[in-house]
Amino acid sequence: MPELPEVETIKRGLKKAIVGKKISDIKVLKSKSFQGDIKEVIGSIIKDINRRAKVLILEIQNSKTKQLKYLLIHLKMTGQLIIRLQTKEKITKGQNNKKSPFDVDGLPNKYTRVVIEFSDGSKLFFNDLRIFGWIKVVKDLEKAIGEKFGPEPLTKDFTLDYLKKVFQRSGKPIKLILLDQSKIAGVGNIYANEALFKAGVLPTRPANKLNESEIEKLKNAVITVLKEGLKYGGSSAADEAYRNVQGQKGKMQEHFKVYEREGQKCWRCSTKIKKIKMGGRGTYFCPACQR
DNA sequence: ACCTAAACCTGGGCGC
DNA sequence: TGCGCCCAGGTTTAGG
After folding, report:
1. In what order do the strands lie in the sheet with A68-74?
2. Residue numbers in A 80-109, CB below 7 Å of strand B
3. How far is the CA of A164 from the C1' of B2 (A)?
4. Which of the nucleotides lies closest to A53 (Cα–C1')?
5. A239 CB neighbours strand C below 7 A
6. A196-253, pLDDT tens digit by residue?
7. CA distances to A127, A138, A224, A268, A290 from A55, in Å
């Protein structure tokens, strides 16, 4: 599901596609899908697009008052943001007729919640099968997201000293710390599993029991798997909704070492990958490589 | 303050 | 065939 690499890929796609465009209309196809006053957003220009943790931040400016506001979007598990230009879509034929609910041929579809229309005729579709995601308008960005998140793992704020401090404070399983957005921003279930495998650390290990060398390995592993995710354009694993703004799947799932590989052989040592539940989520690991 | 479990949702897949 | 159940997982909220 959209984690840091997926949301970042979408952010980059949006940046290329809609910065500078004017919002001409917003159509809310499913009630409660847009929090805030739509009227004050229509007519605004998209000035910039950023990301914090898994939240997309569209900076918008009212073309008359010049006031800046922010359109915040969280895709949660099944959210998609798909761009369609004015040009007629090419219709792909001869595909297998059994379509996934996440297929984006022809939009809007039954899962489209909001359509943001631009003055040049292009449209941004927000699809969300499970209706967990949200879009809201805020004036005060700091108040909305300022204090909520830990450091971004792909910035210099993500230091060994910081992780040592955070891990030492908790006896919780290390995997739950990796998933805690207030401690480390943007890591989700897939990349937490993959990073722990790469670092050779069991997901169940109490955070405060990791030694310095393990913490450093884990830090580097988190950075490496997130960058790998970015390189492959995100992951669209089995049943995953993720698509980039052009509607294409990512390829990171072809490079998973443990995620969704229960019962299959470990890439490194051929031991069978195990699956357990932690915090209600699927947790995959190699019982031999990870200690 | 700590933790866990449920809730929010839908569709696909499974067992019976 | 079809029903009931479980699962997917980001985040918030409720309860212990």
Report:
1. A44-52, A55-62, A68-74, A134-138
2. 100-101
3. 21
4. C10
5. yes
6. 999 999 999 999 999 999 999 999 999 999 999 999 999 998 878 999 999 999 999 9
7. 16, 13, 21, 35, 31
CA distance A223 to A197: 13
Q: Return the structure tokens found at A60.
A: 């918008």
Extract the tokens encoding A145: 């997201």
Judge whether A287 and A185 are in contact, CB under 8 Å.
Answer: no
What does the pLDDT look like over A54-96, one tens digit per residue?
999 999 999 999 999 999 999 999 999 999 997 555 544 444 4
3-state secondary structure labels for all residues of A111-122:
CEEEEEEECCCC
Nucleotide nearest to A32 (CA to C1'): B8
Q: What is the length of chain A?
A: 291
What integer pLDDT is reported at residue A95 of this predicted model? 45
Tokens coding A249: 């799947």
